[in-house]
Amino acid sequence: MDSVKKVTVNIPAATLENAMRLTGKGITPTIIEGLREIEQREKRSALRQLRGKVDFDLNLEETRR
Description:
Layout: H1 13-23, H2 27-49, H3 60-63
Helix pairs in contact: 1-2
C-alpha cells in the first residue's frame, strides 16, 4: 500500500451520507473511491483528446485470427 496522509476535511453531511449509501462502504473507502474516480475521469479525458491524432494501420481480418 502507498503511504497514507491523514487529512481533515469539511464535507456536507448529506453529500457524504449519499455517497456512502451509493458505495455501500465507510467514510474512508468512499472518499478514496471518489478520488480515484476523479483520476480515472482525467485519464479518460486525456485519451479522448487523442481521438484522430493516432494513426492505426491494422488489418482487421488479420487481428481476428
